[in-house]
From TrEMBL:
<protein>
    <submittedName>
        <fullName>Glucosamine--fructose-6-phosphate aminotransferase (Isomerizing)</fullName>
        <ecNumber>2.6.1.16</ecNumber>
    </submittedName>
</protein>
<dbReference type="Pfam" id="PF01380">
    <property type="entry name" value="SIS"/>
</dbReference>
<feature type="domain" description="SIS">
    <location>
        <begin position="33"/>
        <end position="173"/>
    </location>
</feature>
<dbReference type="InterPro" id="IPR035466">
    <property type="entry name" value="GlmS/AgaS_SIS"/>
</dbReference>
<keyword id="KW-0032">Aminotransferase</keyword>
<dbReference type="GO" id="GO:0004360">
    <property type="term" value="F:glutamine-fructose-6-phosphate transaminase (isomerizing) activity"/>
</dbReference>
<dbReference type="InterPro" id="IPR001347">
    <property type="entry name" value="SIS_dom"/>
</dbReference>
<keyword id="KW-0677">Repeat</keyword>
<dbReference type="GO" id="GO:0097367">
    <property type="term" value="F:carbohydrate derivative binding"/>
</dbReference>
<dbReference type="GO" id="GO:1901135">
    <property type="term" value="P:carbohydrate derivative metabolic process"/>
</dbReference>
<keyword id="KW-0808">Transferase</keyword>
<dbReference type="InterPro" id="IPR035490">
    <property type="entry name" value="GlmS/FrlB_SIS"/>
</dbReference>
<feature type="domain" description="SIS">
    <location>
        <begin position="197"/>
        <end position="337"/>
    </location>
</feature>
<dbReference type="InterPro" id="IPR046348">
    <property type="entry name" value="SIS_dom_sf"/>
</dbReference>
Amino acid sequence: MTTTTSVMRSEIAEQPDALRRTLDALLPQSAEIAALAQQTRQVLFIARGSSDNAAVYGGYLLQAHAGRLATLASPSIATTYGAKVDLSGVLAVAISQSGRTEEIVDTMTWAADCGARTVGITNGAGSPIAETADVALVTRAGDELAVPATKTYTTQLAALAVLALGLGAELGADELNRVPDAIEETLAEPGEQLDEIVERLVGVHGAVVSGRGMAFSTALEAALKLKEACYLHAMGLSYADLLHGPIAVVDAETPAILVAAGSGPTLQGTVALAERVVANGAPAYGIGGGSALAGACDLCLPAPDLPEWLAPISLIVPAQLITERLARRLGYDPDAPRGLGKVTQTS
């Protein structure tokens, strides 16, 4: 396997420092967020692409730990239909890596016009989202040159964890501050089975990536990365949805990649899914899930021992490593996937 270092691989390695800078900058803003919490009841996330996957994590986090209903916006309601919706009591959270995607900017402006208070999560200091939101949570990922989002994605997750703390989640900032060191350890020892998983994925045309709860966001983002950089027909599914029919596509030529925290209420179901996949003669590759998931899968990459609410920030890292290595193994440039740019504009 080639040892050439891509920009994507370099930016994957920058994530611990990017997370430290981001947490240092954003944790002091908890009081600003708490002030908005007193004026709002529920949360509306506005995002696309990787940012939308981050919003899925935010939705689970706020509903499970902050007691707030959280939903994903349909931006076309604002930008295409021009509908007016009563958003009084709503906290609209716009997530955009650049802060310049017109659809997201316009939808956040629409939400404010409909009565919502607004938070912007972006890596773009001085961007329209950062400048116009009531509270701007500006991540400190630094410039991201590779098209596939890596450090901008994990710093968005960190910003969402800070948002949850500000909105009243009884979780520990001290635990959040452990995450950068945990990811640093993963990058130092990504797991001896990484290359073998990559080699087994070389000959496949599709894969199912599945998780549930907090880890569902990781499944979606991992599938997106495999599609973007490796041109693999990867489906990101909740394992509950997978069991309702799509599991029929999992076979010897279509492996399952299963992601889970090392503890929490969804781990047992993920292990049971791995056992079912293997029993049906299909490959199952795990990310995280501790010894339980490792024992049920053909191959498994470890993830740091973090509480479930923080696990998605680290679970995506092995998936990023798989994507980058697989792209190069297939002869593709992971830094510049065909047909994609850093900022996607939709109407």
